[in-house]
Amino acid sequence: MPSAKPSGRQEPREQTSKLPGRHQHHDEALATIEESLYRAQLDYYDLYLVHWPNPSKGLYVEALRALIEACRRGFVRSIGVCNFLPAHLEKLMSETGVALCVNQVELHPYFPQAEQRAFNKAHGIVTDPGARSDAQTTCSRIQ
After folding, report:
1. Angle at which helices 86-96 and 114-122 pack, to 10 degrees?
2. What is the pLDDT of residue 124?
3. What number of other Cβ atoms are within 10 A of residue 133's Cβ?
4. Residue 16: φ, ψ to 5°
């Protein structure tokens, strides 16, 4: 698999991508991020999300650890998740010690997700139906 080769430039708009559920093993997740950067001809992503917890596989903590490593390597600036319930988020935070920026969830008048939004707000996580990266940067807090 090709490794990411910096293009020497970054697009002026913010770039977001997601890690598919089938690539949640640590090394595979890192390779997926690098390949995605290479194909997009980017130096880094502004926001990278674990697409969903894929609970039947139980690898979402491993996937987040890969995103933390991607932050350390400079491949991504902020990390978040999609469709994670409070129990998933609590497990991530307790096992990694990392506060997430964003939880992208389905949100509309017929599905307001009040409990999910309250949990996210209490933990400083932006609830976002469109994965805007208007949240504070996570990677600057990762040592």
Report:
1. 20
2. 92
3. 21
4. -125, 145
Edge-to-edge, what's the strand order for the sheet holding 102-104?
A: 16-19, 45-50, 76-82, 102-104, 126-128
Place of tokens 């999300």: 49
**In the block, residue with structure tokens 């894929």:** 54
| Contacts with 101 (C-beta within 8 Å, 6 or more apart), sequence order | 47, 78, 79, 80, 125, 126, 133, 135, 136, 137, 138
| Predicted structure pTM score | 0.82
Closest CA to 120 of 79, 77, 78, 90: 90
**With 0-12 CB in 10 A as exposed, 13-18 as middle and 19+ as buried, what is 56?**
exposed
Helix or strand (DSSP H, E) at 128: strand 126-128
Q: Write the CB contacts of 108 (distance below 8 Å, at least 6 apart in sequence).
A: 129
pLDDT tier at 129 (50, 70, 90 boundaries)? confident
